[in-house]
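Same chain as my last thread, 115 residues:
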Amino acid sequence: VQLVESGGGLVQPGGSLRLSCVASGFTFSTYAMRWYRQAPGKERELVAGVSSHGGGTYIADSVKGRFTMSRDNAKKTVSLQMKSLKPEDTAVYYCAAFQGPAGYWGQGTQVTVSS
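reply #2:
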């Protein structure tokens, strides 16, 4: 089982980034997918989620209107489009897959928003 995130980096405030997560080793279309983030010294935060079939989505209030999550079951990928980034969005972003209590996690990708 693998979840591999990419797309992180350094961006100026107000900028945009698109994170991607490619899944392998499990039946991707039967798992709900989520993006979490964790900033230094802070608890892990759920940022966005999408149901297995893509019909149900969740976006945290802290990023609503700026972040959009999507999934492509054919390509076994999920994406997190982030715009109007703020310094407080700086964190390691993790992709995760859940089916009931079972879950898989990626290794994370660093997003740094700074001028």
